[in-house]
Amino acid sequence: MIRHPLLDALGLDHGFGECGDLEPPRVQRPRQVHGDRVVPAAACLEDPPPEADCVLGVAGEGPVAVVTADCVPVLLASEDGRAVAAVHAGWRGLAKGVLEAGVVALRRQAPGSSLRAVVGPHIGPCCYEVDAPVLDALAARHGPLLTAAIAGARRGLHADLDLGVLAREVLLAAGIAPDRVGRVTPPCTSCDPERFHSYRRDGPRSGRLVHYIRAGLRTPRHPGG
After folding, report:
1. CATH number at residue 206
2. How confident is the model at residue 222, as a pLDDT?
3. Does 93 fall in a domain?
4. In the sheet where 13-16 sits, what is the strand order?
5. 123 contacts 68 by C-beta, under 8 angstroms
6. What is the residue range of 51's domain?
7. Is 110 helix (H, G, I), strand (E, B) or coil?
């Protein structure tokens, strides 16, 4: 599992998955459908769990998680540690506003607390060429924020897209402070078959990476962040 200093500084148990990593005990995650629905962790104990792409957890519950195989995982936390969220943000989810929905839900759960966010491993622009329908859907919601995420134009209306950059821009636009938004590097899941699963590289036989976070403060590993 990959940890990040921004969340370590709060003492939060968390991890971005690599090949071979297992789900932590009592993990609670939804059935992901590339949408913008947010559900509480308790709902994920249902059989079957609800369809959603963001799951919200509070102190005293098990870890919340999402799985990916190229899409962007984002772990969110309130500065006081009492509420967290795991978000699955592919291009469809980003176009529907799943990150904004997660931020709003977390602020409601922990009013008055600042937030932190970390963007996990995902497919990079080196391996992610998209066409006009994808760009149009993202531009319709995010407008000029999309510009920073386009790494290069190829073959007319096609472009290389960095979903992680777009996710970061969306988080900043949602009001999270720049020094409280982090990214895991290296970001490209498709380039590293030893560490990461990738649907674009491996197709339907691809595995899934588990990304989790648990609310409730432990002793911070180091101050600041």
Report:
1. 3.60.140.10
2. 43
3. yes
4. 13-16, 209-214, 64-68
5. no
6. 5-122+166-214
7. coil
Query: How buried is 9 (Cβ within 10 angstroms: 0-12 exposed, 13-18 middle, 19+ buried)?
Result: middle
Kindly compute the dihedral angle of the four CA atoms of residues 105, 110, 116, 119, in this order, to the nearest 10 degrees.
Answer: -30
**pLDDT score for 128:** 93
Q: Is the pLDDT of residue 73 over 60?
A: yes
The pair of three-digit structure tokens given for residue 148, joined into one six-digit string: 């920073």
158: left (phi over 0), alpha (psi -120 to 50) or beta: beta
Q: How many other C-beta atoms can be found within 10 angstroms of the C-beta atom of residue 37?
A: 17
Query: How many angstroms separate the CA atoms of 118 and 168, rounded?
Result: 9
Q: Please state the domain count of the chain.
A: 1
Question: Distance between CA atoms of 76 and 116, rounded to whole angstroms?
Answer: 6
Q: Which residues contact 2 (CB under 8 A, 6 or more apart)?
A: 15, 16, 17, 18, 120, 121, 184
Is pLDDT of 156 > 80? no
Comparing CA positions, the residue from 121, 134, 192 lying closest to residue 161 is 134
Is the residue at 19 inside a domain? yes
In this structure, what is the dihedral angle of CA atoms 154, 147, 140, 133, given to the nearest 10 degrees?
Answer: 10
d(CA 170, CA 176): 9
The answer to whether the pTM exceeds 0.85 is yes
